[in-house]
Amino acid sequence: MIHLAAFDLDGTLIGPGLSLSPRVKAAVARAQAQGIIVTIATGRGPSPTDQFAAELNLTAPLICFQGGIIYEHRSHKILHETRLDPEVAPIIVRLSAERGWNLQFESPDMIYLPRESNHPEELMGLLSVSNWKRVDNFLTDLPETPHKFILSVHDPSERDALAAELRASFDSTLAAITVVPSHPILVEGLPHGMNKGVGLAWLAEHFGIRREEVLAVG
Fold first, then answer.
1. Are 9 and 49 in contact (CB under 8 A)?
2. Which structural domain, as residue segments, surrounds residue 17?
3. Neighbour tally for 31: CB within 10 Å
4. 105: which residues sit within 8 A by CB, 6+ positions away?
5. Which of 12, 51, 126, 153 is most buried per CB count within 10 Å?
6. Euclidean distance between CA atoms 163 and 166, whole angstroms
């Protein structure tokens, strides 16, 4: 029997319009009415994920940043988190400057873009429900160690080559990261070993739910 169900956000609960349909709301409500704990597992941060959770009347903590944060949205409390190795930021900033990569860093409350950039319009559409700002210098202007970074491309056909180049660039002599192509135009750099399954396993243990009782949809 299923006791915990985790749903991806973009492309699963919400479509290109970034809104929840009545059909999705009704399905989630039926699941919760049957006693199933429902959560969201997403690459997005606590904001705007908490907005969608509130609209769905979810009570369970949320799995954000591809598992890097377990967030109790009702009390605005981070239950568990994993951040990037501090050594990663200067490396990816240097590589992005050398190779013309479109870079952004993400923390729970804010997404940071450089003052001048060539980020694709599609990305800006994805950020329309998020808090973001531009900064002059990634190495001095970020208020905390970020949880992940994202590189974006204008042409989806370039994404996989970028992911491969990023993996090759971060070998054991630099810093360990996990590289995830998360959207047709996005490649994410995460803490080493991080993924949604890691976050979901933590949440299941938090509730005392066995792996066989967990459903993941994406």
1. yes
2. 4-82+195-217
3. 16
4. 89, 111, 112, 138, 142, 146, 148, 149
5. 153
6. 5
